[in-house]
Amino acid sequence: MDFIRYAEAAASLLNADLSEVGGLTACLHDRPRLQERATDRDCMLLRRLQRELRPVFDAGTAGDVAGVTDGLNALLARHPITPQLSDHDGQGLHLHVATGVGVAEQLVGESILGLAMLVCDLGADRLGVCSSAPCTNVFVDASPNRSRRYCSDRCSSRANVAAYRARRRAVAQT
């Protein structure tokens, strides 16, 4: 199990518009077998996950380790996960969330397990909310120096340009 990939996929799910199946299939662009099985029911269940996971990312941004761990522990209790060993892709043994369940159940399991492993291995402060107003997207900070503050290069650039323009205005007014 590549827990960083699963954790980043959880952030993508949180940022996705899951009001209809098209939004879910767009989020699953690299997983065609899940795309073809996605239903309205999956979208409904994943919207619930969005509501449940958001406070975990908010707690990560605030540096609230207890909020992150309590939130993830509550999700682990509510959504039992069955990991299985797999060697299907020639990458050696690794963990997968048990298949044979619905799309939403699989994505919930992968998301929660990925985030839990990430928090255990890298820390609760690796979960964040974009610092660029008015963006509210979440992200997983896998950077070596824990420096990520934005959900994307686009938001980072927008914030940097706004700061530059504000400095230029301040200089012009003096």
Automatic annotation (TrEMBL):
Residues 126-168 form the Zinc finger CGNR domain. It comes from the Bacteria. InterPro entries: ABATE (IPR010852), ABATE_dom_sf (IPR023286), Znf_CGNR (IPR021005). Gene3D superfamilies: Jann2411-like domain. PANTHER family: BLL6575 PROTEIN (PTHR35525:SF3). This is Putative RNA-binding Zn ribbon-like protein. It comes from Nocardioides soli.
